[in-house]
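User: quick one
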Amino acid sequence: MLLTQKQALLPISRGEIPAGLVLKNAQVVDVFSEQTYKADIAIHQGYIAGVGVYKGEREIDMQNRYVCPGFIDAHVHIESSMASAFLFSKAVLPHGTTSVVADPHELVNVAGARGMDYFLRDSEHALINVYFSLPSCVPLGDDHNGATFSAKDMAPYVEDRRVVSLGEVMDFLGAKNGSQDLLQKIELLKHKTIDGHAPSLTGSDLCAYKLCGVDTEHECASFTEALEKLRRGFYILLREGSAAHNLEDILGGAIASGISLDRFLFCTDDKHLDSIAQQGHIDYNIKLAVKLGLNPVKAIKLASYNASRAYNLPDTGAVAPGYKADLVVLDDLETIKIHDVIKSGVFYSQMPACPAPQYDPNDPIYHTVHIPQITKEQLKLKSVNIFPVLSLIPHQILTRRESIAIPQQNGEFTPKNGLLKAAVVQRHDFSGQTAVGVVKGFGNLHGAIATTIAHDAHNLIIIGDNDEDMLLAIEELKRVQGGYTIVQNGAVLKTLPLRVGGLFTDDETLPLSQTIHQMLDICHQIGVEKDIDPFQNLSFLSLCVIPSLRITDQGVFDVEQQRYLL
Amino acid sequence: MLLTQKQALLPISRGEIPAGLVLKNAQVVDVFSEQTYKADIAIHQGYIAGVGVYKGEREIDMQNRYVCPGFIDAHVHIESSMASAFLFSKAVLPHGTTSVVADPHELVNVAGARGMDYFLRDSEHALINVYFSLPSCVPLGDDHNGATFSAKDMAPYVEDRRVVSLGEVMDFLGAKNGSQDLLQKIELLKHKTIDGHAPSLTGSDLCAYKLCGVDTEHECASFTEALEKLRRGFYILLREGSAAHNLEDILGGAIASGISLDRFLFCTDDKHLDSIAQQGHIDYNIKLAVKLGLNPVKAIKLASYNASRAYNLPDTGAVAPGYKADLVVLDDLETIKIHDVIKSGVFYSQMPACPAPQYDPNDPIYHTVHIPQITKEQLKLKSVNIFPVLSLIPHQILTRRESIAIPQQNGEFTPKNGLLKAAVVQRHDFSGQTAVGVVKGFGNLHGAIATTIAHDAHNLIIIGDNDEDMLLAIEELKRVQGGYTIVQNGAVLKTLPLRVGGLFTDDETLPLSQTIHQMLDICHQIGVEKDIDPFQNLSFLSLCVIPSLRITDQGVFDVEQQRYLL
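Assistant: Done. Structure below.
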């Protein structure tokens, strides 16, 4: 809180002047004592001025409803929602989320500091508090991504009050082996929180990783893993995203063993707008925790105070004088049913319409698909002899390496029997560098499907059964500057433009979820297996840390051997 | 931890190089999970390099003894021990205290920034980590003290890594009423912890005080008071000092009510070396908490992790990689019997003799008693008509105002029947300003007793039954530049020199406790009541915030009326 705000609030706090708004007869959910108690909450200029007995210019009877601190998503890639921070905030606020720690790892991979700037600017319009992590691993390894985000690039952001952490240190092998680059970045942000990402790291290697200065971990998959990491000093983030569901395993074990939950918090990491709309956001983590037997007040504490403490979020995470009036009103503590949400002292149910931030079509963030004319020649598979095939494992992002005889005609691969051509086109530097491979497991697609979301370099990735449709799909994504597209028989069937970095949209008029559903339907109509989401699968097919085979603009990559194949 | 330290420790952490010292078979007291578990602790260059299975150049079998983080005194005025930080550290380390947050309020009242500098310098030699609060209320009110410590004076210290908080905001009425001076000081240290001091403050006034930005409170006298302050967002410091004993009342209530203890920590505030030697330090708080029924691991957490978190003490408060190897080895968790203490990786039992810091007799900190020749005329009581008498209330620092006929001869007060003359002499500015009053309750002293410890201005205060002895006592304390003295029949019976600011000693050859005991004996021999510690009582007789009458160099002060009497 600013000094001038304190001066304005003090007479209200002392009870000498009525507060702008007083919530009468609230059952305060007190994260400090882990109990509830009845009181009035005096709110003024977006802050809590006092808790106790207060008079207000406007008084609203809470009728003994529970009033708890707003929920905090401690680690989220907003890009995964496929919406801007502004649109994302409109989706999560009704679910009680009033603050998030966002790691703009994806957009910064595409646009570097410019991506960081876009997020900082866009989030100023958000309905919630958006705090930031500075992505630590851009690029990841030898990725041909759009930009580098070095310690030098980070420096101008370090003092920004919204920057609260170094983004997940994904190169955990580099870190524990003393990578100068990572240690320097950690040093630069040593007064903030350092986020970790070290799935399955254990023993003395885990100790070394901790010693580097890493504070949090959101990649635990089991209670055993979480307990070891907790003991070594990591905060444990219980993740419930669209794909990753780690809360039950870890929290179930934690409750059963009776350990302290002081260092546990909640996050979503990656969650689509669609899943948020259907399932909820951090309120879903709370509900799940309560279902597992956790005391609801404690669950709310994990969702608010614990996250605020781990990231030192200012004036956030409790119902007390001087804290932001970011509150959730609950009907009860059994179902955690949200009655209303208060952000900066304003009820969500009474919020005026919030206009979207102004759109500047010339902003370079909307022009990130830089591809020259691609030729049929470039889509030719280099070798058709025992070429290793990337075979999807259903419902996983892992792939299996298969050695299958490649169907061919005149020495060229002719997709059939579930074998499709996959290509990755470098889209950041106009080089048009393209690599081609063979994939299996998508079904008998007739046509082409392409996307510019392909972790972490986010080059253009495309699958198809014929070169003409594949080339058209590339042209279509150049036209809209990124997104999803489906092409068949020389015609574009449907395109979802994702204009911000080719990763997500800030266009409020775009029916995002509806379009995605339509496109999935079309994919399945033109031959994709019913239970496969081709866009999701494609988005991980370039991520060279997931076994066993990947494809990037540089070729087909063997993750176990850590090398490109011919 | 510095970057270079990390680089040196990483190979040890990874287990590639043996650690300098490994504690084998330790039962780690884990403050994160609030459980214990068996492991080796690898220590190198003063830090914990790893926890798990490790080999060391030197291995010591802990034989399943408990190893817990070093204890932290979250709020202490080291001056109250009457010893320097260096001497104090030698007293508390064997009791498991490895870090303290010291508020040098007394010395800064005498010497301003020079006092701060002395403490920072002296504490570099201490055997423990000494962190600091910057005193916020110097002078307190209109005190004629030795120096002012304004926001401007504080500024050079704000970035010092050892400075972790703003010292207790004792002027709580000023703060809650929006004192510019205090709000500015809070603003200056807003990235650090703001210490509170607001006995009995409640309701909306307490909310206003919290809103100013105050974080902690160590003045709670009951569980009810502590619970209200906890709910409003204060950390609650459970104090066990020489005089104040608040732990049982508060913690007893807290345990009974089942509230969370996440925001509770331990402190001593003021504790003499003598009490420390007899009773212990923070280990005493732990033992008392365990006796009240608190889980020992939880009690240790309050004594370590909780304090470290509240004050953001770097690399402190847990047994995990990257933390300082500040550890306590316990024989058991029932009696909390300390087997040994490890500071920065060195066992206390094996520590080499630590030389005291060098003494520079010309340092102005040793020359703070600035008094011209005082005359008999100055010790004359201005009026002998119904003069209000400061009457001690036994075993309390409160006084009662009594209106007693003053015994007189030739229009001058002649001490007798338990009525003594009291005088306060300004000792900071050579003005020699002196005020005289009448006290009761010390007994039938024959002679004079004087001290330069008199909160908070620390002028020279003296009682006696004749002016000659009183004048000699003043001269004696000028000679030694501060301390305690006893004079009778024109002779100095005994003097305790307290050369640092006239408040404490840094002379290791001085038998401090022994001298104090001798002097108390002498006091009682020359007429002081048996159960009165005259030095203690004198040290509070100038503190104008304690009811009902006080005496300063400006006169006799009525605390209720907040004015000086004739």
